[in-house]
# Entry
Amino acid sequence: MTSKSDASEEPVIARDAAYYRAPAGLRDRVRASLAAQAAPQRESLRWRPLALAASFALVAVVSWNAALWHAGQGSEDALAEDAVAAHVRALMPGSHLTEVTSTDQHTVKPWFIGKIDLAPPVADFASSGFALEGGRLDYLAGRPAAALVYRHRAHVVTVFIAASTRGADASPTIATRKGYAVARWKHAGLDYEAVGDISTADMTILVELVRKGA
# Structure
């Protein structure tokens, strides 16, 4: 037998629930809200190809500059290698260290006329420990160069002078390459490469003498 309390706990099903129609403007407001949320996404998608293109362009510019820098470094290293090779080759038996042998700058400098398209500055620094022995015509990186030969005690130093192909004046840099002191600088449209089996301190002295003489 079912009690009254049990009957009151049965679920109540609403069979005739009232139906309410949404206000006329609600649909438009919902659509406008959804469109506003989607707009930034469409804007982001529209600008994404441009951002990617700009990124690729930046990478290309950086890579190009790096390539130019490495190319410049490579050409300067090749020039130094040529200078060392030319210096060593001239010291080998049977080679000509000088083609014009003289301590007189007024004899050595005119000798280059008609042989090279530049007038190399020539000076004797015997009083400072670097005596001029003469000069010869040589080549660096396929370019003709005047090679001035100096004697420092028992050591020979060659100063190569060639017409500069690019770049403004540059201060001297001195380093050791294959056991030789190598100096490099640019001045007045000329490239200078000095090579000798001397200390970098002695090379510094000769470089300053040549620069003052020039």
Q: What stands out?
A: Helices lie at 4-8, 24-91, 105-111, 200-213. The chain has a mean pLDDT of 79. Residues 60-213 form a domain with the Phosphorylase Kinase; domain 1 fold (CATH 3.30.200.100).
